[in-house]
Amino acid sequence: MSNQCPNCHHHELEGALFCGECGTKLVEQSGLSTAQIPAVESPQEPVNPDIPHSPPPPTATIESPISLHIVDTGQSIPLVGRQEFTIGRISEGQAILPDVDLTPYEAYDRGVSRLHATVKLYPERFSITDLGSSNGTRLNNQKIAPHQEEFLSHGDIITLGKFKIQTLIRQEEE
Amino acid sequence: MSTTYLDNYYARLGVPKNASAEEIRSAYHLAARRLHPDTSDDPTTTELFLQIQQAYETLSDRSKRKTYDASLPPDIDPPTEIMINSIYSRPALSHLQDSQLVYVLLDMMAKPSEETNEKNAPLNISLVIDTSTSMAGSRMDMVKASATQLLRQLRPDDSLAITTFNDRASVIVSASRNHDFKTLESQISLLTTGGGTEIYEGLKKGVAEVSRNLSLSSHNHIILITDGRTYGDEQKCLDLAGEISKKSVTISGLGIGSEWNDEFLDTLTAMTGGNCVYAQHPKEIRTYFEKKFTRLSNTFADKVSMELRTGKDVELRYAFRLSPDPAPLNTDGSITLGAIPLGPSLSVLLEFIVNPFDPDLDNVTLAEGGMDMYIPARQIPNLNSRFSFDRPVRMSPDPEPPPQALVKAMSRLSLYRMQDQARRELSNGEVEKATRRLQNLATQLLMSGQPELAQTVMLELKEIETGSLLNHEAKKKIKYGTRALLLPPGEDDLQQ
Question: What is the ipTM of this complex?
Fold first, then answer.
């Protein structure tokens, strides 16, 4: 098995991330370079100079009750204005469109179905249901049964195919 | 599945194995405050947060914790007050006819207890200043002004010594606390220049001075400031650094202008866990002093070092400190990683080559050994713990892309390594290879939005083409410029 640089055809060892000859990236591209639109804009409190790296508590910056944090790109999608959101990707000739479209984040390559799962917002809690997707859904690495509702906690990792999302739930200050 | 010493859930949270539920909870909250993805775009932060989250999920659940504890080797007890996380470039190795690479990003974050936090460990600084003829003028003026300013910032229990050197060395201010500022200021203002550059004598006296107030409960630091090349005594200096590397003393270097020997100073400082900075203009000297003082006053642990033995069929090919103070690390024998600041992490990237291994293995040990560090603010100053890195072996190749944090770090580091390689090729007379590599480097720099640095590389290429002498300034600009690319955004460096 070889790991050949697409740019200069230099052979790198398996596991190399960049070509040593020309500096070309050898691993799968991700959406990081385009991830410049922070979904959540909120004024940061001035940081105490004595504690240089202690940002405000996490819960303080989330505007919607629940956000989906895309692990690979660092973006967050706040879920507001509905009680139920379908999650998937849009492709040509599709009749029913998902509320949350993950196409821009290379959802296809990561095995996300067109209508993969739904997130439901209840007054006090949130849930996820797999909609019988081809590659399945995992909650904190445990596969969940299709069409069966599972409740979510803050920080849970949802994996749609290989697409990782973390749930960020706004919590009241302690 | 095996659990490695450094990659266990307790180490990730920086709590002992017998930690109470409350201790675990508060460690998690501390980490969450610092690392929550909403507060940072940095992929490293996100990865770390996920690791810590995973640890917390298990340890906060009584029955999950019990099962997990049963899976741990009996003799581990992770260091407390430090959160240690390791991010691997691949979840597993596969069986190959050829060698393969694995990267490990090791992240250590200080988590001082309240008691430790309140204790502000004193500084023990020994300045070693080059006063050769070439330092005359603005360089010396700026060094004097910066040293005076440093003096004013010291607290009564901080110790300061000043040694100067040219052809010979003399102690201007012997290591002392409770300074008489007026006397010291006039002593600094009287410094004159003249003669050549002989670092060894100066360094030796500087070491003797720092040793006067050497204590495990202070930050012991030598700052070497030079603008010249020392001749003939390099090996003596390195031997001295080798001796120091066993003590709790760190050497940092500031090279001014284009004539000093950066390879020598990089090696010298790396041996003791310090780093070397390039000041192109005299005005950068002041910035360096300011930053150094802040850095030293905000350090949790000094001289984190690893006694590392690689596994069978494994080599450690490269080690680099990503943060703080990006710098390549010596990989032979004991590796001195550097200091753990209060606040940002000490973050180190290790590159392992795994040669073809026994096909019956289901787990490959990359490296194991012991880790050491000095924590001046703590009652038990010397912290010692074991570590090991390993990877399981799987039949199918890696299905998952590597973590963003590693890709990001490597994208910057690969540029630094390209210039490093080109430099080596040039000194071996492989001009054609070096030229091609520098052309590629210029292209990559342009693509990553660094037009000025790319321009410097292209100018250097022109000089190489005409066969002219090596341009020391361009070489330093490229080296420290690509190194500065690894600094976190917003932290402008001297090199920029």
Answer: 0.79
